[in-house]
Write the structure tokens for this entry.
Amino acid sequence: MSVSISAAAVGYFGFNYAILDTNRRFAARETKTMLLDRSASERRSKESALAALYDEYYDKIARYIFVRLGDRAEAEDLAGEVFLKALESLGSYKERGVPMQAWLFRIAHNLVVDHFRRAAKRKTVPIDDLQVASDIDPQEAAEASIEVARISRALDQLTPAQRQTIELRFFGELSSEEAGQVMKKGAGAVRELQCAAIRTLRKLLYEGKPSEGGE
Amino acid sequence: MIRTFDTILDECVDRVNRGEKIEDCLAGYPEHAEELEPLLGTMFDTRSAYNFRPSAERKLAARQQFNAALGERERERAGRRPLVPRLLAWPAWAGAAAALAIVLIVYFGVSQGGIPIVPGPQPNPEGNFAFLISDEVNAIGDFQSLEVTVSKIGLLLGGNESQWIEIDPEVKTVDLTLLPGEKAQEIWRGNITRGQYTELFIYVENVKGVLLDGNTTTDVKLPSNKLRMSKPFSVTGDAVTSFIYDITVVEAGKSGKYNLKPQIGESGADQKFEKVEPPGQGDGPPKGSSKKEKDKDKEALSHGADNEQTLPTPRGKGAGARR
């Protein structure tokens, strides 16, 4: 009698345990699925955010790259590449880190660096290859080329940080906060860099000498 | 709060970036105007020198490429991602049902992005749909020949029961130098399901470009072997729908490198075109010249679905050797 009661108890508890175990496994799988769903939805929302930035930032990024490369077609190609690269790397983008537009400029900066690395030499708007808008008359085009070459030489004399500040603020049209996020500096530091850079540019362009001080 | 000169200059730079005039900024800070004016002038000169605006065409092409990549990811997610995790979470009977569903899908056609692919219809000269390739004139003048080999055409039939229709082109290789402007070569004609089509793609297997000197072959880059395009069109069945897929070759700067890109603006079922026969077939009766064919095309024109023109009027942007 006692043997059969024990067997029944073992059977009962064993059955209950099996049910509990199955439930636990289902719960674990459901959690895993929910996490995957959430991750997919986060990814989708990041993709939408990136797509929404396209129209506004493609031009700014292309201009930012153009100032570095001096090649319109290459700048346009690389600007497109920035967005493709961003799409590939969206998984690594953290919204709480930097705004997406600043992140795009970081990618643009890295692509430009890679471009120069590939070209194996620094290319800062070569005067001979300079491309100016083709729909202006030749004399205007020549004058524009000379002006760009003059400004390009002046930009070359800035410190790298000053130059990047000017590129991000004037051509990328980022705010000082955003430029700081690209450069991993505070907005105050960017404002100082900007002021020093413009003063130096002013002296280089109109007085033919650099200003004192720098970064 | 005392604002430093750096902050005031920064605000002015922001305002100029937003399109405000320098004078307006100076008016806002009369006590600093003298110091600000030359600095903002320098900013203005620097910005003006690099007055560069990307071409609308290249921006559009880049956007299309981005959208295609975005669509591809969404399709991958819809088609592939849920399969493994959900299978893991399903009980055994659900797994068995999924396996059965997979068997059925494999039996009736594989899927792309969760949308079934139906086996390609056979070509038919009396078909309701023609697919043609054309070339918008850009850098094609640099080439003696530019042969593009298309191994597959995919058409996405929309509606409740979406499906991809994959077609093996009858003519696989076209020479784009023979197809400038409105000239277009038919690479497939046959009967396809009537309905509204929302997307299409071509698989480009190979591109071979020979430059004008006759000796130099050059690499022509593709954004992807699968050139996807969202250009809706409908196949009604009572008229021939001729879809023109326009590809263009552009030189990347002055690098001597070339890129091949789909031209969405010049593509579609509403484009005018002048049909060109494949080389070597021009002497015989042209494909579209039989009376029956002409009648069909005439009928199509009257329905507004076909677009094959009888009078070769040049396109606005230029046909033939115009660049």
